[in-house]
Amino acid sequence: MQIYVCVKHVPDSAAYIRIIDNRHIDENITFLLNPYDEHALTEAVRVRDMHPGSEVIAVCLGKEDAEKTIRSAMAMGADRGILILTETGHDSIETALILKTAIEEDGVPGLIFTGKESIDDQGMQTLFRLGALFDFPVVTNVARLEILAEKALADAEFSGGVVKTYEMSLPCVIGAGKGLNTPKYPTVRDVMRSRKSPVKTLLLPDLKIPPAQARMEVVELIPHLQKRQPVEISGTDSDIAQKIVQILKDEAKVI
Amino acid sequence: MTKKYDAIIIGAGVIGSPIAYELSKMGYKTLTVDKLADAGEGSTAGSCAIVRAHYSTADGVAMAYEGFKYWLDWENYLDHVKDEKGLARYMNTGSLLLKSQGHDWKKVKRNYDEIGVKYEELTIEKIKEMVPVADLHEFWPVRRPEDPKFYDEPTKTLEGAIFCPEGGYVNDPTLSAHNIMRAAEAKGATFLFNAEVVDIRTKDGRTAGITLKDGTQFDAPIVVNVGGPHSFKINKMAPGVWEGCNIKTKSLRHEVMYCPSPEGYDYLNDGYHMSDGDVGCYVRPEVGNTFLIGSEDPACDPREWVDPDDFYAGKGGPGKDNVLTDAQWKAQCYRFGKRVPTLPVPNQPKGVVDLYDCSDDWIPVYDKSDLPGFYMAVGTSGNQYKNAPVVGRMMAELIDACEKGLDHDKEPFQYKFKYIDRSTDVGFFSRKRQINRNSSFSVNG
Fold first, then answer.
1. Which pTM value belongs to this model?
2. Interface-testing mutation among B347, B348, B350, B353, with chain A (most A C-beta atoms within 10 A)
3. B350-374 pLDDT, tens per residue?
């Protein structure tokens, strides 16, 4: 089975993001593998190892620098990589078209993974558009996955602690959520091995992508400044602990 | 009316606070000012707070070994003061110095013998027993991952290690400075925060006081510069001080990384502090069972000398601001990943970026200045945290002796250690010294 993992080269969330010309960010910062894609890769490798003869192929759309992200994906276990070189940004409609074309040009997908979203655009659309183009079922924010002979069983997490289990025909598209696994980070040996793994570079014009029927464009980027108002929590240790639990439950809604 | 003090200390970090504490104990009415909001929030907060004795000079070893005794006796040192934030804890992991070409370990051993530091020499087999995850091949010389030779397979093994059972780290460096502040306050010291010094005032050729950014003035015949990475800026505010220093200081950017421990290895509870010159790294345990990986500043790494104000404001761009860089993340983690081949290296850098107040020879300047009444404890170069309580006492005695008429430049003050039977010539740390060629010229000091 050929397992494709669509990965994205995104800015490090710890970097200072500076907007230039109202539409772009200054890219002279660290870019890395989209964190949700780490879960996708770890799961893809797990599935591959359970299905002898399978291979994991990382696919990425980006500038030359995006090869670093493909190498990271291969250090995490992908067998090879495909970099589709482009100098410009693409909306999710074009991105899905390009990914589909590149995957079809390469082989026959038995399973496609993505992260549930990218931490830069947070559009959460590409995986659905990709599924639609292939006519594959899609489930996102997957927290558990089981691949059986003819089908996949996926638990997807929703807000409020709801989990729905889906049965899908194969091939399908899986949007990996944080709950799916703990990413298996590479060792230096893995990094060394990945340096020698093959990366196929495709030039966008060579893929002869049909023009998209619709398009989206970023008109303006505006920094979102969150106003934070610190509140001092005082009292006994027990009071403080109770107030923190209350805040986490009622305001942050994380427990 | 301008408030008057006997001594003003600029900087409430882990060196400034003990100077205030010791001067207060000696009866001086002190004011400590800091531009940040609380004690220990400057470069002290970014310190790895490692307590180890290996230094390239005997005086360096002596001071570190003396300092160790203070950390062991922390509550007594603080005179049992209460701190509402709790007390910092010294974690005695023991300290391994790998014998490698990256360290002049024979010199360290001679220094240990001279000072009487407890140690044992370990074979490779013994190290492997103590650190089962370690690969003890020799990887020297230290290279960057961009260098294709970085990935060459090693052929030799290391010689062994020197192990000091006395060594480790302090779990919360900021808190340790805060503890000392509370101890100083209990002796009458005053601390003022969010107070940035913009001028050192003089009168009749000697120190007269300071002026803050908001125009507030405080008078004192003694001012002590403990400004950490800002120390060179403060020296420049005092007439003739910067010019009178043969050894200068400047601020050096430094990155420290956090990598998870390999699965199945409880580094937090079973691990040692380790100095590994063979791969140019030092490590200690950190909460969350992670390796804290610092760099020993190998020659192949770039050195970024930055303006501390720009740095802390996040200006200057990648490699010059306070965000970890991908290149250095990979350099340090991959280097240490050779020593621990099962070390997982996450894709996103995690760690701390801060500044060293670095002197020309990486040895601090603990001294008076050419301006009477102006003193300095500067150039701590990323390696003086462990010595802080000793420096506090030594500086207080030096200041007291100079104010009572000692010409320290001509007859250097001799500081008698409290715990170990030895005195140190404080002239060793003179601003007037020639560059000390015995120094490691690195964080190792």
1. 0.92
2. B347
3. 999 999 999 999 999 999 999 999 9
